Structure to design on (511 residues):
């Protein structure tokens, strides 16, 4: 019987997949991958971050294939990623080397280098722009705007490199913040080793940074609403390009001049400030600041801020759910969460028949 | 120019720069392809700034190629899908490793390319700096 059911399903599955293609084509318009890459920056950034693979072009293709569903696009990229060899590990990336595109602080008005708004929706009116309905018919005018924008700056002789110090160094230098020594312990890799509790910091950060945007945001928000005991202030939010280098794999000795530059990646990095009490002597405690750390691929500020809240939650003991690492880390991964939830749609005939038998049996016995 | 700087210039500059240099080598020397341009991943290792631990941020898609010129091997690696650039980078790397005479004349080309890259980055920085908040102006407006 089981064999017949599978065989019977094959044709239906093939036709179902045809329906997927039909749904993508039925309005008789085909999305160009280049157009997705050009105009869906937010979705591309989210998909790259959740799939934990940086490639805008591939993310755009996955979005097209998945008809814009982030969970399907992430699934496709994770699956593709598993077919590729990991050729190298990058040299340690430091965010001080970021080429800044946006950098703000909610804690200090005057910060070294200044508050740079960059591209942000924060101060827009959120009134839908209906002129975009037909802007593809006036490409020449839009490109003219772009050309005008590109030349609208005050030229200057000297080169300008937007690299800036960390805002919170100000608090570190004043002794108001715990200044940690560099910890050079090799990170654990959650793609190679199954998670065991308690986790180490590198595992937590890796899971948080590739967490589903909605899930990370929801749990960060829950923490603020009382299901956690962390309420931070954003010390610094920076967005920009990080250069990536690898050591020369053909050389036996490491020499920085011999490194290979391979490109740059855009990230959002957030440091939130949380006050914490530090024991001083037997009975005295002193208030100091600690940092919650958030980072993700692309420009995804809400996720990075929420990650910084969850990072701090998982570093501190509390009975609230957002401080429970198993609760947070096991439930925020896109592929794991959506995979498990959607498997409930797949045939469970045998399992359900067994439950049905049990219910019938108990009802019969009750009579 | 050392490899660290050279690869940055060649990747950030227009592909025509790398292509021109690689073409020069192809014209005068035999190039053996050891590894055709192919896709792979680079895991990004990062230092977080809260407790200064190391962790893995995620992977980056790269294209990598290997060639041999004379007895020297050259590696070309660049982010994304870019077979042509990866191959050219490998040829240029092999040329430097083999100390081919052509490389002696490349310093000026690379210097010029570096200036163009710096110019483009400066222009972008100046545009970004137009979004810098001028709090003094705000304060004055509030007083008025």
């Amino acid at each position: 019987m089981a064999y017949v059911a599978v065989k019977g399903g094959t044709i239906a599955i093939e036709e179902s997949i045809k329906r997927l293609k039909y749904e993508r084509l039925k309005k008789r318009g085909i999305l160009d991958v280049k157009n997705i890459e050009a105009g869906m920056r937010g979705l591309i950034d989210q998909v790259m971050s959740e799939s934990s693979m940086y490639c805008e072009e591939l993310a755009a293709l996955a979005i097209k294939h998945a008809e814009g569903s982030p969970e399907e696009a992430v699934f496709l990229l994770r699956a593709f990623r598993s077919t590729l060899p990991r050729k190298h590990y990058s040299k340690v990336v430091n965010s001080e080397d970021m080429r800044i595109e946006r950098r703000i602080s909610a804690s200090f008005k005057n910060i070294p280098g200044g508050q740079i708004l960059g591209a942000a929706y924060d101060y827009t009116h959120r009134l839908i722009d209906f002129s975009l309905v037909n802007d593809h018919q006036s490409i020449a005018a839009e490109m003219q705007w772009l050309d005008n924008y590109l030349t609208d700056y005050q030229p200057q002789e000297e080169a300008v490199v937007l690299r800036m110090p960390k805002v919170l160094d100000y608090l570190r230098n004043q002794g108001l913040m715990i200044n940690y020594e560099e910890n050079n312990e090799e990170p654990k890799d959650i793609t190679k080793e199954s998670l065991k509790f308690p986790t180490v910091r590198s595992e937590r950060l890796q899971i948080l940074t590739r967490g589903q945007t909605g899930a990370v945001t929801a749990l960060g928000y829950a923490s603020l609403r009382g299901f956690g005991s962390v309420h931070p202030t954003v010390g610094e939010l920076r967005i920009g390009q990080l250069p990536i280098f690898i050591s020369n794999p053909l050389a036996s000795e490491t020499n920085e001049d011999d490194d290979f530059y391979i490109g740059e990646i855009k990230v959002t990095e957030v440091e939130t400030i949380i006050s914490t009490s530090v024991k001083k002597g037997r009975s005295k405690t002193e208030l100091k600041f600690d940092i919650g750390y958030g980072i993700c691929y692309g420009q995804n500020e809400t996720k990075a801020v929420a990650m910084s809240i969850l990072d701090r939650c998982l570093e501190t003991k509390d009975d609230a759910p957002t401080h429970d690492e198993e609760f947070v880390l096991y439930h925020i991964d896109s592929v794991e969460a959506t995979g498990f939830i959607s498997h409930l749609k797949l045939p469970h005939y045998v399992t359900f028949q067994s439950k049905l038998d049990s219910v019938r049996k108990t009802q019969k016995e009750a009579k | 120019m050392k490899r660290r700087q050279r690869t940055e210039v060649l990747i950030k500059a227009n592909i025509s720069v790398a292509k021109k240099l690689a073409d020069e080598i192809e014209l005068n020397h035999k190039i053996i392809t050891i590894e055709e341009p192919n896709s792979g991943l680079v895991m990004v290792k990062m230092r977080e700034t809260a407790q200064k631990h190391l962790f893995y941020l995620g992977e980056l898609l790269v294209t990598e190629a290997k060639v041999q010129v004379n007895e020297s091997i050259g590696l070309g690696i660049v982010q994304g899908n870019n077979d042509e650039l990866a191959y050219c980078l490998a040829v240029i790397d092999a040329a430097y490793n083999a100390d081919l005479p052509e490389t002696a004349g490349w310093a000026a080309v690379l210097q010029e390319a570096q200036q163009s890259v710096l110019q483009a980055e400066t222009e972008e920085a100046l545009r970004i700096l137009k979004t810098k908040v001028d709090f003094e102006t705000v304060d004055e407006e509030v007083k008025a």
Observations:
- Residues 2-81 of chain A form one domain.
